Amino acid sequence: MADRLQTEWAPRVLSIVRVVAALIFMAHGTSKLLGFPEGPFTPEAFSLPWIAGVLEIVGGALLVVGLFTRPTAFVLSGLMAFAYWLAHAPKSIYPLLNGGDAAILFCFLFLYIAFAGGGSWSLDELLKRKA
Q: I need a surface site. Which of 35, 66, 104, 111 has the fewest CB within 10 A?
């Protein structure tokens, strides 16, 4: 029973985790570039915050639907590692104090998704079945 439950639901739960994480991640990009859900913050085009915002929105959208999941998650994992060491770590060694705990979690969650894939409810899986 437990093996059947794990076999059937593990890929589905992976898909749910992927979608929820991507939606939360996209909010960081929409906040930077669109001022939603926060007030206006429009970084200069092609600056590091602008590039991060574009990657957060586009990469997050790709992860929501599960398209190009592995390479997208790998790039976003690297983005979050870069963001942590560039923006958060210089403030303090402790993630709770430097505000980088979300960046660390996103980094390792996306790294896991890069290796695990998008789960059974993804466009990647749908395209693989049709091929």
A: 35
Q: Give the count of domains, the chain.
A: 1
pTM for the full predicted model: 0.93
> What confidence tens digit (pLDDT) does each residue in 9-29 have?
999 999 999 999 999 999 999
Q: Does residue 39 have a pLDDT over 80?
A: no
Residue span of the structural domain in which 77 resides: 2-130
* Long-range CB contacts (within 8 A, 24+) of 98-107: 104/80, 106/21, 106/25, 106/76, 106/77, 106/80, 107/77, 107/80, 107/81
